[in-house]
């Protein structure tokens, strides 16, 4: 805990970044102290640096005076990783959002940490290129936030997660000097001893403050076909996933939405689809000439898994016209809607809680069966959707935030959901990270693998990078 008064902290920060770039208004501070998970902290101030040099000075000042620092992108985190839990300073990247350079021939784009992924794709799309990691929260998220969260997205089955697309990072370390380092290279092949670039990916703002990133880019596919299948049971939809995987095609996207979320999504989005059931939506990229072949493989795989209906799009334009992906992208708002409908608005405050397990795709049918059994056991609602191409499911529940008994029940159910994932050979967190919510889950996973020693190593790594525990303390480990 710092011995400095709030006024001294604020005046020192103003000396570093300028008076107008330190926010002290309580209402504004509150906005920057919340994240999408529903968790909230209380910051002393929010600071808006312009470059790595200013961040380095902020860190040096924080180190000398034992002040906690919380890097924050768009605060869409769902694991409790970005909130200022122990007061301290929130560092916002709102002023560090420039796209600095890109090269199609060298296949990279360089951006400051606060640049939004959507802006990067706006620039690249004019050249026929894209950055392929696309969280459902794509319109808001920042480069630094997604790197630190280790995010993934709808195209994860084909393109993986953030760590696969990092080339070089500039990072400010939480040491006595606020040292600025550059790790990685702007070449695809790069050996620099231990892989520090990928250590920062998924470190959730606990090891260093990312200020700039060089990201790999890839051409936009010539054409994308999409087939959506509707199934009476969850298991049938998951069987279709397995059949498509066996058909030797690599899906560009493979998403799943359960029947009740489909129904509410249809209402919310005014979709006049004459179909119902559990939806599996699969896209495949390739030349226009093979569109019919891919549609046939996808449709036949779905029909042989008892799909009651299919919707087909031979191009991205057709998929957009049919609004096939809108429903998947709207799953979170749909869960909010389902929650609101199930509670009396004047007496309760809906709280939405999202799980983030992954299992090997062959284990999806058994996994969803066990999830439905847990829904019955706990008597809590469970919407199930996710990026099933890589086995990632987001079982989502909702309760009244004021109901302490229900909260206890949710955490017990989530423990059991994580146990199911581990028993299936999966993981407790695929892309949302550990933050505060999943610290117990991380311990469960390492214990399950008889690898508690790995936790010890992580604690030591944290200590080496952040000897005074000033950077996003209490998160992850
Ligand atoms: C509706 C919805 C859908 C979502 N869908 C997906 C999805 O499909 N896939 C997915 O992966 N996630 C998803 N998420 C979760 C969230 O969007 C991701 O975790 C995202 O990567 C966070 O980016 P952000 O800019 O909001 O970062 P924040 O939430 O602000 O921060 C995330 C973490 O990164 C740290 N951080 C932020 N900036 C920096 C920096 N410059 N240097 C060091 N650390 C930093 C923070 O301290 C925190 O630990 C979803 C969230 C919502 C609300």
Properties at a glance:
single chain; 477 residues; alpha+beta; Uridine Diphospho-n-acetylenolpyruvylglucosamine Reductase, domain 2; Uridine Diphospho-n-acetylenolpyruvylglucosamine Reductase, domain 3; Alpha-Beta Plaits; 4 domains; seven-stranded antiparallel beta sheet; five-stranded antiparallel beta sheet; 17 helices; 20 strands; 36% helix; binds flavin-adenine dinucleotide
General description of the model:
The longest helix is centred in the last third of the chain and has 20 residues, at 404-423. This protein folds into four domains: 6-94, Uridine Diphospho-n-acetylenolpyruvylglucosamine Reductase, domain 2 (2-Layer Sandwich); 99-219, 2-Layer Sandwich (Uridine Diphospho-n-acetylenolpyruvylglucosamine Reductase, domain 3), CATH 3.30.465.10; 223-329, Alpha-Beta Plaits (2-Layer Sandwich), CATH 3.30.70; 342-432, Alpha-Beta Plaits (2-Layer Sandwich). The two termini are 20 Å apart. α8 (234-246) packs across α10, α8 runs antiparallel to α14 and α9 packs across α13. It has 17 helices and 20 strands. The strands form five sheets. The protein has a seven-stranded antiparallel β-sheet with strand order 15-12-14-13-18-19-17. The protein has a five-stranded antiparallel β-sheet with strand order 5-6-10-8-9. It has a four-stranded mixed β-sheet with strand order 1-2-4-3. It is 36% helix and 19% strand. By secondary structure, it is α+β, with helices and mostly antiparallel strands. Flavin-adenine dinucleotide (FAD) binds at residues 35-36, 70-78, 81-82, 93, 113, 135-137, 141-142, 144-146, 148-149, 151-153, 204-205, 209-210, 332, 431-432, 472.
